[in-house]
Write a structure and sequence with these properties.
The protein is an alpha+beta fold. It has a single domain (5-104), classed as 2-Layer Sandwich (HIT family, subunit A). The chain has helices at residues 5-10, 58-74, and strands spanning 20-21, 25-29, 37-43, 81-84, 100-104. A 5-stranded antiparallel beta sheet has the order 1-2-3-5-4, with helices on one face. The longest helix has 17 residues, at 58-74. It is globular and about 35 Å long. Bound molecules: guanosine-5'-monophosphate.
Amino acid sequence: MADTIFGKITRGEIPTEFLYEDEHCVVIRDIQPQAPTHVLIIPRKPISRLVDSQPEDQTLLGHLLIVAGKVADQLGVGDAFRLVINNGEGGGQTVFHLHLHILAGRDMAEGQLASGLN
Ligand code: 5GP
């Protein structure tokens, strides 16, 4: 896949504060927050879209969910957050390096399918 801004960020080529990092992923604040708390969990492995993930990515994808829960807790929003993955242009994806959004701090319960993004 083509390199993206998230590839550069995960490789440390663009200085960005990591709220959390480990060998598999980094967590950063979204540059254009859509909620008072809006952070991104980005795997170091460049997978373009969720739909492009493969069976060998199962452990990584599970890891990202575990990290999402832990980071949400650490940010004090563990009881009220939404986790979003946009897949493909039609799904609102703008950066084609898989990432998870944690959104919190506003009324996330409003509307069962309220996107929280866009
Ligand atoms: P997507 O629309 O692909 O699901 O989400 C991409 C997100 O990345 C957007 O919410 C956008 O604000 C954020 N974003 C794009 N470029 C940068 C950047 O250079 N730094 C940070 N921290 N966030 C970015």
